[in-house]
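Hello,

I think I submitted the pyridoxal-5'-phosphate job twice by accident. Can you confirm which output corresponds to this input? Input:
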Amino acid sequence: MANANIAPSNAFKARLESASPCMWINPARRPSLPTPRATDISCRDMERAANRMHRFAPLIVELFPETAQCGGIIESDLIPAPRFARALSHPPEAGALWIKADHALPVAGSIKARGGIHEVLEFAEKLALDHGLINIDSYYGRLRLHKARALFGRYKVVVGSTGNLGMSIGTIAAALGFKAIVHMSFNSKEWKKDRLRKLGVQVIEHPGDYEKAVDAGRREAEANPYSYFVDDERSLSLFLGYSVAALRLQSQLRKNRISVDAEHPLFVYLPCGVGGAPSGIAFGLKQLFGDHVHCFFAEPTASPCFLVRMLNPDHAGISIYDIGLDGNTEADGLAVPRASELAIDMMRPLLSGIFTVKDDDLFHSLYLLNETEGIRIEPSAAAGFNGPQMLFNSEAGRHYLAANNLSKKMGVATHILWSTGGLFVPDDEYAGFLARGKAMVAGD
Ligand SMILES: Cc1ncc(COP(=O)(O)O)c(C=O)c1O
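Support: Only one job matched these inputs. Its output is below.
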């Protein structure tokens, strides 16, 4: 059963507003799988998105030879992390710790790859079908040829982003032959913009935050019938692309002989920005595992937009600025002032909870992960790593475990820390992250 406590206490609100770490349990979570309210999407739609990615796999191999090994399917490994668990003081009795390695996702280097690439492929497929270049059973590798590129070259693909969605959309759109335009917010990292420019993508910088960048992209596309806008705040195609990760994780769990059932709970900790990527994945996991999977989102203390919106169910459009926060965080991928309403609507009955993390803790975890497992990530990707600790050590977390009869099952539980980005971080930038993390550890 969900926590019956509906309104957050004044003490909780004070912590949230002073940017102190919090753990919140969703009182609106429903024990059995409800019908999503915002749309009537289902497992079938998720499978359709997965099938589309399969149809495009031969073309992906041609465009990105680094994906040949995995047959053009852009997917990350599921990695056991026993040394990291020890460094986090996560004992075996608390369950096994795994990392879902989206930091190493080929082509785009982050969790935003599946959704972004799926949406551009869906658009390209529609154009190619409408113009008779392929039918659904064709060999899609032929979309690399001149005729298809000439068709795609008539269209602009436009997106607004904090960085990683832009990298995903820009990379695939430019590779297919579209004109790719990425509007970036002020806190986007320079190296992400440079990388895109080198790929032939037009990068437009904005002095405002993520929302302003998205809005600029939306307005640019509205004015031009040959523009296609990828809407990070509202797109179902993105959402379904993200959800495909759940199907793939299911087969990785099977391969690793990890059971997920009433006796073997699965906990998944996902960094959250606007909410699209973690919600798509959580939606997919809930379709496959129902009550046996417990999804928690992680946000920076300076920018907990999803938590703010979940706490205010009647206040669509509420932002972190409305509660006095400034959104300044090194977790650039999560620096979003307002949650996606689509993601909120989908998660209201499904999400277990949300916790917030200070920037210092991100660097601390980033450093420990490198020291123990040799894994290289960007700060946003570390947001979920405090999850098990928040679950076991906070009153709200312990209450959740007890109220859902989970406390006695933790020895056979599985925890997945979703590590969401980092593949393309330049060496000098990463050295700075490590130095900051090392200083945090030394200060412990
Ligand atoms: C590294 C990283 N992790 C997590 C996220 C969160 O995704 P979303 O904004 O869809 O919630 C992002 C978003 O860009 C990201 O770049």
